[in-house]
Specification:
The complex is a heterodimer. Chain A is mostly beta strands. Chain A contains no helices and 10 strands. Classes of the chains: A mainly beta, B mainly beta.
């Protein structure tokens, strides 16, 4: 199975660092992508292929991947970062999404 | 500018069929990997289907045998034909492009705004 497990929710104080994990059996050889979804909007990629950031995404977003765990880190979280975050991998011909993590910025 | 716009959603009875369309601009549909992803209101994202640039198609187990993805290059449109609809197919359906770098396993770099399908009697 390649289910991806994320924490249901993560809270972070304004300006502090938030980390969201994504665990999956045997994802060590797969690229992990991360999407942000604000309320009422469609998803937006914030990190692709483990640690690459699209040019339009702020530098406070970063990603890492080691073995069966990938992580999305937001350094200096802002109020506008409050959203749902999903990790995703491809398992040969199918895409798998994590269950999503609701990030709350306090 | 790359744009994707889904249409065709609405209220439909269980057992009926519906066709969703995804009109794209800014790139050539047949040169790309196009996917459908759905989201039940208040729930997470669920991958539905992909069509490769070579026209190979793949489906989630939950829709296999009922849904068909296709494309019309002349119309720059990707379709999702949905048959034998069930109540649990109710969702917002998004069309998204998979980035060609590291294809076919690229990230979904462009998404449409989604179209809502409600399956109810």
């Amino acid at each position: 199975s390649h289910d991806l497990t994320q924490p249901l929710s993560v809270s972070v104080a304004l300006g502090q660092t938030a980390r969201i994990s994504c665990e999956g059996y045997d994802i060590g050889d797969k690229h992990v992508h991360w999407y942000q979804q604000r309320p009422g909007q469609g998803p937006l990629v914030v990190i692709y292929r483990d640690s690459n950031r699209p040019s339009a995404i702020p530098a406070r977003f970063s990603g890492s991947h080691s073995g069966d765990t990938a992580s999305l880190t937001i350094t200096g979280a802002q109020a506008g970062d409050e959203a749902d975050y999903y990790c995703q991998v491809w398992n040969i011909t199918t895409a798998i999404f994590g269950g999503g993590t609701k990030l709350t910025v306090l | 500018e790359v744009q994707l716009v889904e249409t065709g959603g609405g209220l439909i009875q269980p057992g009926k069929s519906l066709r969703l369309s995804c009109a794209v601009s800014g790139f050539i549909v047949s040169n790309n990997y196009m996917t459908w992803v759905r989201q039940t209101p208040g729930k997470g994202l669920e991958w539905v289907s992909v069509i490769y640039s070579n026209a190979n198609t793949y489906y989630a187990d939950s829709v296999k045998g009922r849904f068909t993805i296709s494309r019309d290059s002349a119309k720059s449109t990707v379709y999702l034909h949905m048959n034998s609809l069930r109540v649990d197919d109710t969702a917002v359906y998004y069309c998204a492009r998979a980035n060609k770098v590291a294809a076919p396993w690229g990230h979904l770099d462009y998404w449409g705004p989604g179209t809502l399908v409600i399956v109810s009697s």
